[in-house]
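Narrative summary of target 7.
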Amino acid sequence: MNFNINNLINKSIKPLFNIIILLYLYGAVFAPIAKYFGFITLSEYIYYFYGFFCHQKPERSIFILGNQMAFCSRDFGIFFFAQIIGILSLINKIKIRTFSVKSLIIFSIPLVIDGGIQLLSEILSASGLVLFSYESTNLIRVITGGLFGIGLSLYIFTTLTNEFDSITTN
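Modeled conformation, tokenized:
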């Protein structure tokens, strides 16, 4: 029996990555739906869990059925687009063999600029030094998060594939 590491990646690691992203993404989407249908305690547990990973500010969140998602719009962009890349990778529609750290940084730049300017604006405003005011929109947050999610997923999948390939050739 011939051991093929690419089969291991495609049949184990990629599906596992997709399941984890899927559960995390749709858990955040499920919270407002559960709340809407009266499952208040369940939704409170979900919001509590996601509170460890996200600020959950209402003005920076997407609402479903009148209730806030369990994470912000930027996190939604990150995990939604990571899920898309994960699925495309799983069905072998992505054939990228290398995706460098430099490429990941390029995909991260819009998020860093948008989030960084917004954070700086908040810090200056809180300290009384209102030099400028900047509040990003949810659309911009989804887009910048989505670019980062795409870059991070491509980096993870190509790195895993290349690392496992190097193990089999050594």
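Helices lie at 5-36, 40-51, 73-90, 101-126, 138-169.
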